[in-house]
Amino acid sequence: MTEHDAVARLRAAGCVFAEDEARLIAEAAGADPAAGERLLARRIAGEPLEHVLGWAAFAELRIAVAPGVFVPRRRTELVARLAADLAPAGGLVVDLCCGAGAIAAAVAHARPDLRVVAADIDPAAVALAARTLAPLGASSLVSDLDAALGGLAGTVDVVASCPPYVPTAQIPLMPREAREHEPALALDGGADGAALQRGVLAASSRLLRPGGVAVVETSEALVALTARAAGDAGLAAEVARDEDLGATVVVARR
Ligand SMILES: C[S@@+](CC[C@H](N)C(=O)[O-])C[C@H]1O[C@@H](n2cnc3c(N)ncnc32)[C@H](O)[C@@H]1O
Q1: What is the pLDDT of residues 129-177, one digit of tens each?
Q2: What's the topology of domain 74-253?
């Protein structure tokens, strides 16, 4: 199969960036045509490109991803950038709901002076995160929010988080790639979408030192609820946006 054939098949399957995808799939397959055919078939069957390739682009890094784990979104680069900017020299940053570890990896890469800890409730996500984070000197562990992080209470400079924030009733309206290939645990933010954000902000008020900040991704639809949740957790909230990334983030100071 030539790359030209692959482009035609991807385009016929509805892939908008067929040329780019064919090139990346060819790169992933290397010199093994059978592997190339298998990867192409998975993509044409509707798997996310990142699951097929085994990595997602994020903040100039390649983050290891695999079927069953959330694919990091580029908009979340705003959380990582703010966390890296706000952390003091030698400080401690915790990525709660870390998934494959994209935020923690970007922070550790941008700021090698920091101690970075990443946690997620899903052992499969933590196993992937460990692969990316260990070479960057960051650690990862399984934890329901901060349940396993009690030893860090009151010592954290920045909590960075992109928790699930899709209202339960909107999950059936998500693109097929997300609905069928990402776990509900990674998407479902409860009835109003903000249940896990409330959990992260309450955990932040326990983890942060006085003056520390929580940086939590949200959406324009939810931002008022997220800011209210920060206030309920005793944190002072501001909103940051990046229009190029389509990102909205609540920055909440203890
Ligand atoms: C939207 S994904 C984001 C993952 C990662 N932060 C990123 O941006 O790629 C949300 C993550 O939250 C995790 N999660 C859901 N409930 C959790 C909980 N109670 N405690 C810790 N992690 C949780 C899921 O397993 C999933 O990996």
Answers
A1: 999 999 999 999 999 999 999 999 999 999 999 999 999 999 999 998 8
A2: Rossmann fold (3.40.50)
Tokens of 121: 């409730």
Separation of alpha carbons 164 and 103, rounded Å: 14
User: What is the distance in A from the centroid of ligand 1 to the CA of 162?
Assistant: 7
SS3 for 149-166 is CHHHCCCEEEEEECCCCE
- Closest-CA residue, ligand 1 atom 13, reads 97
Give every residue of the chain whose pLDDT is below 50, as ranges. Answer: none
Q: Are 224 and 199 in contact (CB under 8 A)?
A: no
pLDDT in tens, 69-79: 999 999 999 99
Q: Where are the domains of the chain?
A: 3-45, 74-253
